[in-house]
Amino acid sequence: MSLMNNLSTSMISSSSSPFLAPISFNSSRTQSVTVPPKSISLVKCVSTPQEQQTAYKTKVSRNANIAKLQAGYLFPEVARRRAAHLLKYPNAQVISLGIGDTTEPIPDVITSAMAKRSHGLSTLEGYSGYGAEQGEKALRAALASTFYGNLGIEEDDIFVSDGAKCDISRLQVVFGSNVTMAVQDPSYPAYVDSSVIMGQTGQFQKDVEKYANIEYMRCTPENGFFPDLSTVARTDIIFFCSPNNPTGAAATRDQLTRLVKFAKDNGSIIVYDSAYALYISDDKPRSIFEIPGAKEVAIETASFSKYAGFTGVRLGWTVVPKQLLFSDGFPVAKDFNRIVCTCFNGASNISQAGGLACLSPEGFEAMQEVIGFYKENTKIIVETFNSLGFKVYGGQNAPYVWVHFPGRNSWDVFSEILEKTHIVTTPGSGFGPGGEGFVRVSAFGHRENVLEACRRFKQLYN
Amino acid sequence: MYKLSACCSMSCGISLPPKMILASLRGHKQGNGRCTNVPRNVNLEKLQNNYLFPEISKRELQHLEKYPNAKVISLGIGDTTEPIPEQISLSMANYAHALSTAEGYRGYGAEQGNQVLRKAIAETFYKDVAIKDTEVFVSDGAQCDISRLQLLLGSKVTIAVQDPSFPAYIDSSVIIGQAGDFQDKTGKYQNIEYMQLGPQNNFFPNLTITPRTDIIFFCSPNNPTGHAATRKQLQQLVEFARDNGSIIIFDSAYATYVSDDSPKSIFEIPGAKEVAIEISSFSKFAGFTGVRLGWTVVPEELLFSGGFPVIHDFNRIVCTCFNGASNISQAGGLACLSSEGFQAIRAVIDYYKENARILVDTFASLGLEVYGGVNAPYVWVHFPGSKSWNVFAEILEKTHIITVPGSGFGPGGAEYIRISAFGRRERIIEASWRLEKLFSMGKSPLLTV
User: Chain B neighbours among A 180-239 (CB < 8 Å)?
Assistant: First the structure.
């Protein structure tokens, strides 16, 4: 008990980096949970205070890889800032356009299926214990036909999970520490962080804000948010998210064709994150497997989170084609299956029942309506920033708006917006050095909150 | 042995017979340009077979193909069979319905788990040992937590396991790169310390001859032997860990099966908070094997050698590699811990314990050496001089009962069979009857040693 208090009083205050921020063990990102003050323990993860030197220590060394991580994971950081702000202004009407958390209720047809499955668990006929670790057959089949119908991806290429974030780490466990990886810059932080944890990277280099050994593929307005592959070094693994979090950019068929060729020429594996595919408004590809030859070079990961509001329900999937082989010919799917069987035990059966309902005609239509709602939010936010004279990107094919604040430090902009308008956003540098000078505004929220937020933005920036 | 066996689960379609796999591998080795240049993770190459339980499933399927009309009784994989008490599934159904309302909708939850649930777990299981809710991390199950703990610890730590033990400790250790090479001669991985358990040492390792390792995996009540360590034994274990500066990862998934006064948590032992992590699960406690819910306790006092709190790093892993257990499952978990829910669950646990008692009686009456079945839903039967996969095969062939061969749990299980006590009462009784028939009239060669 006293340990935590002692740590909080001995914080080092010399650092100016916003990343050396405390960790909260009670994540306050849930909008409707009020976080009691005492649980915001300000803990510095860098030094060892006096008191600890007399406390019993084991002789187990800390994992040097985890020690490389610079600060807490990005989104709990944002949540911590939000909670601190609420402490400062207890009556503020804070609007969260930071963490990409869905807000609209899940359509009835989907929750009814989950309720039904729950009730069934109390009956002899309806009770089920351990499910197949790869997921329930009906759901795998529905995923294959719904998303990969004419792309030659089969039911048994699909592995159901408790979400893309978890799958990213499981994929890293498959790959191991001896592979190199490339990420877009900026990108969803889980790719880099899981790579550091796995031991694939060197130390963080403060001057460039990058980890040694990771290839950062800069994505900017100048290159249309698609990296210049002629300047990208070969790596074993290439993480690619499209539509992109945070920039909102969706790669064209031509760009993806070049990416697949690049991977093929280099013998690399693309891990393609398609979590926002259903937000595409134009004819951009929704799956990497739309590109010929992709099955031999790519894995695709996806999620029900942003489609069905399943951020708390937890359901996603990963496609590992049979044709994807390691350099010795061993199928990647076999190793992924081994990890899934050993390090995981299947997604919740109730969540899977919900997923199946999502893919019924009625469920899919209902999901599209909710997606449409968030897309309308996005439109409103884009229009607002456009009208204020900002350079705005994204927002067309993803529920994220990527706003340029040239020459400004993104955590400073984040703080200014939070302080002056009580709106939480996400600072672009949290997604990599390529995000500096940008702020990500997420479009999840009740309509009235989004409209109110836009009013406040107009007030601040007019 | 099973190196070339195909995808390990019955629902995975990649199941080529061994010869075909070899042939296809050869074809690819010749570099027909269809391979990537990404090297396979050498750690995964070190794994000897498929994970144990999908193997058992596979055997069951093969048996069913051979005997399509057989009434197979599964006493293999420890899968719960009895319906979840109504008040618990009702609370999950209600939570699901509420997700369709503005007031009831919830998005991302705290990665560490719902605060109310964390508090309830601390109060239900750790009230007398002062574990705080902030030290409890809710998860989607112990099997997943084991791997997250391995990610936390990294490849450079050494581990000890009980022998026999739940295979996920060893397999996850191999995967993360701690284990070294498998040695065919001993059936052990080079860098893992196997602490042998048997009737000869009362199913508790002789710690005076156990070398130091950084981590000690210890499961009690034990899967597969069923032995629950005594208070004295756990005191020795904690002292051993303390003297060596090691960390115990204590698996208490079967704590609610304890029938006597054996400790239910490692934290009942003074000093344990500075040397131990405890993992647990709602699976066998509440029939949540498919619902997916568990928890891990990391005390604040537990420090790495440099003084850094382990809980900080575990929290980082949980925030980065995980996104919380399903909110519906957590609602169910909370209902399990209400006094009404807990009582209803106790009745189901007692049902399985009665199953175990019946199985123990059956084997004992046949004159077989039988262990466990008192503090755990597993019965551990000794067939001296036998090979457990042969015993498994014999029992399956002659009685259509699935069990688990002891060697799947490590070389220490070589002459044993694990029989799990989950199942409908009628099937347990039917299984007992079939086993009596097989073993009593000297029909089985397994008894003639």
Answer: 190, 193-194, 197-199, 236-237
